[in-house]
Amino acid sequence: DETRCNGAAESATQFPNIQSYLWTTDAAFTTPVTGGVGSSNYNITEQCAGTYYLRVTLDNGCVWEGSCTITGGTSGMTLSAVVTDADMCGDCCGEIDLTVTGGSAPFTYIWSNGQTTQDLTCVDPGSYTVQVTDDAGCIETATYTVGVSNYPIVFTLTGSPTAQEIIVGPV
User: Fold this and answer.
1) Which residues contact 28 (CB under 8 A, 6 or more apart)?
2) For residue 131, is pLDDT > 50?
3) CA–CA gap between residue 140 and residue 129 (Å, rounded)
4) Measuring CA to CA, which residue among 112, 129, 119 is closest to residue 93?
5) Sign of CA dihedral 84, 88, 92, 94
6) Which tens digit of pLDDT belongs to each residue from 105-124?
7) What is the predicted pLDDT for the residue at 159?
8) Does 103 or 107 have the greater pLDDT score?
9) CB atoms within 10 A of CB 149
10) Residue 163 has what pLDDT?
11) 15, 64 in Cβ contact below 8 A?
């Protein structure tokens, strides 16, 4: 079950005597697009929202370079998480158990704290943003907040104290 993004772009200028087209996802022209019709046509298809770079080489050796931005392509991924709050005494740290549905496996993860695992374990309270990239290059982002749980203190009074033994309020 392979999910692809639905964004597309094409060169607005049809050059005569084309030697090659190269569509990439980086301005250094080192990472060709994948999926759709590939990276060596005048157009690209099945791409996610983002910036794409085009290098056209003519038969006479002239090179034209440009870029375009695809908006509105959908990743096909849904991110959800179970968040476990840290406790206020520091005995238990927080966790984010992330689940990805849809998209094309394998996935890569980058969290705002630098972690590259699917889940975060033993993290301090705070907000964490994850960017998930699937095998097709589609990206989905979500932010989750690890809070602090204030667990109630439960105690039992034993014995029979007298009124003098229990002081309530300021003395």
Assistant:
1) none
2) yes
3) 11
4) 119
5) positive
6) 899 999 999 999 999 999 98
7) 58
8) 107
9) 13
10) 47
11) yes
